[in-house]
Automatic annotation (TrEMBL):
Its main location: membrane. Residues 1-76 form the 2Fe-2S ferredoxin-type domain. This is Molybdopterin oxidoreductase Fe4S4 region. It comes from Dethiobacter alkaliphilus AHT 1. It is found in: Membrane. Residues 138-168, 181-210 form the 4Fe-4S ferredoxin-type domain.
Length: 345
């Protein structure tokens, strides 16, 4: 263990930890834009600048030392923080009200903390790039006018998903997050898992048709046999979002494209709510009793003619686990193990 002092507060932490981790343990806030607890440290934004033993260092990369004295609120660090955030804002989209991350934006939080003022911003020349929003991905958009080049999406794609579909492209003031060959997202190797979108600190990567829930329901994804933990975002009687459950030991908050975005069928207008029976070549609505009687009679007819092995059942990942269990039990009770599921592994 190493003991250091942060803003005159004594902190003991494991050797090899960073100043940022020590401050977190002590409940001391240090602003940052490129740091994420799921990823390796990057040290690119320089917003976490603090003074350690009289020298300015980046808290997310500076290792702790026994007896170290750290000051987070000194003029030198504050100047660097303000300057960095001001430069980001000069190239950032000013329309926060229509942004999906409004009031939940890390840039807003940090700008407020470091003391960005209208007078200071009026002295700077804004040069927001005129770049079209990449709307090619069916689930989320990439708006580079809201990107702060923190690199979180790039590191997430590489370290979490192992795909590396994104990287920094071009150089200098033209630096941007791009796919290989600067292609549209839909034409890249992106798997649409949405992990980058979940970690994006601004609205650069945001859901299409974003709608905030008014409550969440803890559940388990039914798309395959892994059993990933999820939180269903509900608004009224509609499911409007899904996010991974970080406390679930199965997936630790990570989800695939189906688990994160495959929920629109729940409230879809084409979803069947009444059984259909084919009469004269066309499907017509029927009562549940009528439909079950028909299925039962067909089962008996097939078993009498060809035996129970001629029967088979196909279930769906869009049913609940309990429904799938009951269906499997029904098919096996008829004397056959011909059972399949669209999400088997």
């Amino acid at each position: 263990m190493v003991t250091l002092f942060i803003d005159d507060i004594e902190v003991s932490i494991e050797e090899g930890s960073t100043v940022f981790e020590a401050a977190e343990k002590a409940g001391i806030y240090i602003p940052t834009l490129c740091h994420h607890p799921d990823l390796f440290t990057f040290g690119g934004c320089r917003v976490c600048m603090v003074e350690a033993n009289g020298k300015l260092v980046t808290a997310c990369r500076a290792p702790v030392k026994d007896g170290m004295v750290v000051q987070t609120d000194v003029e030198g660090a504050r100047k660097v923080q303000r300057m960095v955030v001001e430069l980001m804002l000069t190239k950032h989209n000013e329309d926060c009200q229509t942004c999906a991350k409004d009031s939940n934006c890390k840039l807003q939080e940090v700008a407020n903390y470091v003391g960005i003022t209208p007078d200071r911003m009026a002295m700077l020349r804004r040069s927001v790039p005129e770049v079209a929003i990449d709307e090619s991905n069916p689930f989320f958009n990439l708006d580079r006018t809201r990107c702060i080049l923190c690199g979180i999406c790039i590191r997430t794609c590489e370290q979490i998903n192992g795909v590396a579909a994104l990287d920094f492209g071009f150089r200098g003031e033209h630096t941007a997050v791009v796919t290989m060959g600067n292609k549209q997202m839909a034409e890249s190797t992106c798997e649409s898992c949405g992990e980058c979108m979940e970690r994006c600190p601004t609205g650069a990567l945001a859901r299409k048709d974003d709608e905030r829930p008014n409550r969440e329901v803890k559940s388990v994804c039914g798309y395959c046999g892994v059993g990933c933990g999820i939180h269903l975002g509900v608004r009224g009687d509609r499911v409007v979002s899904v996010r991974g459950d970080k406390e679930n030991p199965v997936n630790s908050g990570q989800l695939c494209v189906k688990g994160r975005f495959g929920y629109n069928f729940i409230n879809h207008e084409d979803r069947l709510t009444t059984p259909l029976i084919k009469r004269d070549g066309e499907f017509v609505e029927a009562s549940w009793d009528e439909a079950l009687d028909l299925v039962s009679s067909k089962f008996k007819e097939i078993i009498e003619e060809s035996g129970p092995k001629a029967l088979g059942g196909i279930s769906s990942a869009r049913c609940t686990t309990e429904d799938n269990y009951a269906f499997a039990k029904l098919i096996r009770s008829l004397g056959t193990n011909n059972l399949d599921h669209c999400a088997r592994l």
